[in-house]
Amino acid sequence: MAFIDVKKGQLQCKIVYYGTGLGGKTxxxxxxxxxxxxxxxxxxxxxxxxxxxxxxxxxVPISMGKIKGLETRFSFYTVPGQSFYNLTRRAILxxxxxxxxxxxxxxxxxxxxxxxxxxxxxxxxxYGIQLKSVPHVIQYNKRDLEDTVSVDEMRNELNRxxxxxxxxxxxxxxxxxxxxxxxxxxxxxxxxxxxxL
Amino acid sequence: MTDESHKSxxxxxxSELGSRPVHSEEEASVTAEKDDSIGFLEVDDHQxxxxxxxFGTAFPQYLQPVEExxxxxxxxxxxxxxxxxxxxxxxxxxxxxxxMGFDDAYKLLDDLHESISDLEPELGAPMPTEVREAILGHVxxxxxxxxxxxxxxxxDPGQQKTIYAALKDKKGVGDLVLxxxxxxxxxxxxxLLAARPDEVSAVTGLSQEIVHKLxxxxxxxxxxxxxxxxxxxxxxxxxxxxxxxxxxxVEDLRAEARRLRARVHERNAELDSLHLGLAxxxxxxxxxxxxxxxxxxxxxxxxxxxxxxSRKVLSSEEAMRRHECRLEALCRERRCLMQQADxxxxxxxxxxxxxxxxxxxxVKGGMQDAR
Lengths: 197, 371
Ligand SMILES: Nc1nc2c(ncn2[C@@H]2O[C@H](COP(=O)(O)OP(=O)(O)O)[C@@H](O)[C@H]2O)c(=O)[nH]1
Ligand SMILES: [Mg+2]
Fold this sequence. Notes:
- Chain A is α/β, with parallel strands linked by helices.
- Chain A is built from 5 helices and 8 strands; from the N terminus they run ββαβββαβαβαβα.
- Chain A has one domain (3-194): Rossmann fold, CATH 3.40.50.300.
- Chain A has helices at residues 25-35, 86-93, 110-125, 151-158, 176-194; strands at 3-5, 10-18, 45-48, 54-67, 70-78, 98-104, 136-141, 165-167.
- In chain A, strands 1, 2, 3, 4, 5, 6, 7 and 8 form an 8-stranded mixed beta sheet that branches.
- Chain A is globular and about 50 Å long.
- The relative contact order of chain B is 0.04.
- In chain B, helix 3 (45-74) packs antiparallel against helix 4 and helix 11 packs across helix 12.
- Chain B folds into 2 domains: 48-159, Four Helix Bundle (Hemerythrin (Met), subunit A); 161-330, no CATH class.
- By secondary structure, chain B is mostly helical.
- Chain B is rod-shaped and about 205 Å long.
- Chains A and B meet through strand 2, helix 1, strand 3, strand 4 and strand 5 of A and helix 1, helix 2, helix 3 and helix 4 of B.
- The structure holds guanosine-5'-diphosphate and magnesium ion.
């Protein structure tokens, strides 16, 4: 849940990039970090293994301007994709405001995508939340590769609540800012409404 | 500023991010070096607390494979690969805790890492007791810290009072209660006060009565509530004892299972080596019988050749006999021819004698004529 620090005049929101391992979550965050004004971003904290697989999470704070005189700060997290780190994924989802579900378009990863979105729903349910009531967008990543599932088919399998979705090639930055911009917009609108700002 | 203008400024921000690099060319060249560490926005208290909490909750999960690998190595079932995996895992955990600034966790992990750094030559055999104890000591220290981080010490107690800190000395609040709360992810006082009692009860398994009293205890230093909790807890104490006993029993069983597993492991190794021996013998047998078959075939070939040769000898002998007969016949023929030739010779010399006599007669006749 968004959090207001009245003393500091800050509004804090939390966005989580969720999805199957090696789908491109860290790549999304790296690109976001690279493209943001250094004055408005924090360091990118990447807690990864020696083989560059996300171990705990990636984290970057970005300042997004003001709402009602409150400085909005977004915390962007990724989760580790490996199935056995579910506890970490769940811990990261705690009090989430918005989710970017990064799916891998390769045919061979389709089952893993479905597993991952089911796992997302399950983990949210442990906090008594339903995916359909959390602002989220879907990203169909790795569109540059051969042997990909058609967007329609992916949408059919993964976008069950008809939320905004984006084709992406995260390594080239395509579709990264678009997805981020949309989730920031959706979260901000919800926060403004919920907190009656 | 109106809501709309706030929002639109934010959206502008977001879409600016999308449409072009926000920073100048100069800055772009700095970030082009892909240095994650460049960023001037400080992580604030709220964010660092959140990170600590995530880490605290997740950490024990990362220790589990470490402990499993260690157990393998300490019981002599590890190899260079498992040691490497363990080293890798510890390096990753160390670098993660270092980057998050969790010095305490980093220090303990580093101690453990050091203590296993020179185990390689001793792999494959159970480690000596003192080595095991030293290493397990580090593991226990880490596990304790992890438990502490996930079970109540998360966050700066000055800013976010933890349930553990608030209740640990309260009469009637035992380990069971604290453990159940932390296991359900309830760490800070604020969390518990914000949660609905029936939900707390559902996720922790504590009765709603206890939850209500706990909340009263947290809201005010309520002595009466404390007493009530104590009496309620008394009723739960029996259950707790059984639970503790069961847990101990489960521990025992686990240890027994580990021992059994180790024995199965040994037996498996023995069986494996037996299998290997058997396989080698079978291979030898196979090669011997194939050699024997070869020899048989060779023998067969030799026999056939011998038979052929003796057949040939027989037929040669016969041919010889035939030739001898022929020779004999020829000899006879020659002798007979020679006799005939002799006869003819004699006849010829007789004829020559007569011829000479006739010539004499002719000569004599001629001389008479001449006279
Ligand atoms: N071809 C291609 N590769 C990608 C794309 N996005 C990410 N990758 C690669 O996929 C791998 C995994 O990406 P990563 O961001 O670490 O995945 P994560 O596990 O979801 O964090 C890396 O080697 C990336 O370079 C993409 O759009 N196209
Ligand atoms: Mg990653």
